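Fold this: Nyctalopin
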Amino acid sequence: MFAIILNVILWVPHVQAVWACVRSCPANCVCTQERSCSVLCNHAGLGQIPSEFPCEASYINLDKNSIKFLSERAFGTLPSLKSLSLNHNNISFITPGAFKGLPSLTELKMAHNEYIRYLHTRTFTALRRLVKLDLADCNLFNIPDRIFIELPALQELFCFQNNFRRIPGAIRGMENLTRVYLERNRIEAVAYNSLQGLTKLKYLNLQDNRINVIHERAFQGCQKMEYLYLNDNLISELPENSFDGLRCLKMLNLGGNFLRNVSNTWFRDLGELEVLYLDRNRISYIEEGAFENLTSLVALHLNSNNLTTLPFSVFQPVYFLGRLYLFRNPWECDCRIQWLKEWMENYKLVRDIPCASPSSVAGIDLMDVFYERSPEGYCLDPVELNVTSEGPTPSEEPWSTTESKFNSLISKLLLQMGLPEEVTNTTEVYSNATQMDGLMDGVSSGVGKDCIEAVLFFYLPALFTVIILQHK
């Protein structure tokens, strides 16, 4: 009996809380006990923020409405609210202090509001517990440098797919930031102070921008960085000490740029690096020692470059690598990469490496190339077939010989027709109609000239066919 009474006592407050959440639910919204009290107003056709929410609300979803304006204290006072979502609306202006009265808010989502474009310095004032802020795809061109000054707890910032031309200065000195998403903007450079003071940053995504300049030691203040995306930019050169200090880095993506070589200074500090993307560049040369400090490397992506060879002396320090991607390169399958074939056979971790040269193995996968040995045991390069030579093959005769045969044949035909010897001695292969007319003018009129014309008319096509066939 005591247990039953205790359960009833404990159950009554829960029922009261649920009832309070439902009782104050805004029109066109649904309120549930999920997350204590969730207010679901998404797809509700709302043109403005409801005037009242349940005081117990911990989660409010206002996604995919037509809300345009957020006034000061737009949500009233909601001491328990932890998550607020305003994605996919038509918000164009946010009054400074719009989020006052939300002291417990940890997550604010305002992505895909393409008309915002501008934010006031005090837009997020009083949100001292905010951990996650999503401003993706809002058509922002810039944000004030001091806009996050009252957000000391901010850890995750989503600003991808905007119009930033530089890394927002507002993130400098944000000591608690751990993840920053800035992909698909118009950022052109990573300056020496762009990331200053981000001592806890672990994840930075700058892919698909217009970055063509990275200053020396641009990442030196990010010593906790683990994931760095710089792929699909316009990078053609990197400073020698680009990644110095990133001793915790696990993944570096430099794919889809315009790099032509790999320096032996870039990765010297990256002893913890596990995955390195250098694919889709224009790399034709890798300096010896470029990978020698990558003792933790598991996967290396070198596909879709201009590599013709990969000397063992360059690759030796990471010979224990787990995955190596080399396809879509114009490989020259000579003895310099025989070691790679042996490694492929032994470890079965690399495949699809079609050869581009020598011609005798062009189109053949490296795995299927047979390397012959000299009597001393040295590797012999596959032969280069002379498939494009324009010179005569052993079965051909020089053009001068064929031309002589043609002249002789014409002379015999003319002699058989009883023409003078001086005429037959002038027969040659003429290259144009003017020369042929000269020949005809040198012959007396009458039967002789008619005979020559007949000979030329009936026999020349066949003779030229013979010459062409012989010349081939």
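The mean pLDDT is 82. The longest strand covers residues 30-32.
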